[in-house]
Write a structure and sequence with these properties.
By secondary structure, the protein is mainly alpha-helical. It contains 2 helices and 2 strands; from the N terminus they run βααβ. The protein has helices at residues 14-39, 44-77, and strands spanning 7-8, 80-81. The longest helix is centred in the last third of the chain and has 34 residues, at 44-77.
Length: 83
């Protein structure tokens, strides 16, 4: 049975590493934007401006994160070799 199982090969390609870096970077950007909203809003109008910026860029970062993380995961799953 062990001989029939595919051998898992780690994906060390540059493109997969770039996808993972992009995923982590978008999470960091989202965290920084949230921190700006939380700690960088001295008054209500600054809060509203910061919140709107967070909504816009946070949404974009979320989409980029899920696409890049999912793509990196799928590339890792398809890197199997049969013996």
């Amino acid at each position: 049975m062990a001989e029939e199982q595919p051998v898992v090969v780690k994906d060390h390609s540059v493109f997969t590493k770039i996808l993972k870096v992009v995923a982590v970077a978008t999470l960091v950007i989202t965290l920084v934007l949230a921190g700006i909203v939380l700690f960088g809003s001295d008054h209500e109008s600054a809060y509203i401006d910061n919140r709107e910026t967070f909504y816009s860029y946070g949404f974009i970062c979320t989409i980029i994160y899920f696409v890049s993380a999912y793509w990196a995961m799928k590339r890792g799953k398809t890197s199997h070799s049969t013996s």
